[in-house]
Amino acid sequence: MTTTPRPPDALDRTDPADPADPADPAGPNDPADAAPAPPEHRDLGSAWRRLLPPRLRGRSLWIGVLDARTRSLAQGVVVEIGSLPPSPTPGDAAQLERFLAGHSATVVGGRHHVAALLSRPGPAQLGEADGAWAAVVYDSCAAVDVPCRVVHLAGDDTVVPVPRSLVVEHLDRLAS
């Protein structure tokens, strides 16, 4: 996995923040036939779209730190973790936890939230690997007590919110 810092201006916002509770009502699984996402999810989704390159290559995890008060990117950096394997391993989860823990005291410190985006080529429909990666993000944030905004998934066509409730439901369906 490789990390690349990104400029902050793509995520600076004045729109209302999306709720920090990842158990918010499920966003669309298939954007073509799903109900519109709540405005707070669309705002963060729009910010992610502005940040992404015009053509997605490979699977990446983007981590940003949002100021809960100003709703803008804190500390001026978004990190892209590129070249992700198709499915996460326990080692990937441990590495993400270490990364988040290292930033929790200095960057997050109670008034910031983690914003995460999974990107990959293809349609933005939640697949098994996407659900597994989103679960790793939510679980890693919870493990180090870092508040996490709703994870988003970017494909070639759009960016959609992937609330924790949708991830749990999706993974339960796959397990049965």
Automatic annotation (TrEMBL):
Region (Disordered): 1-44
Comp. bias regions, Low complexity: 23-35
Protein name from the UniProt record: Uncharacterized protein
Organism: Nocardioides imazamoxiresistens
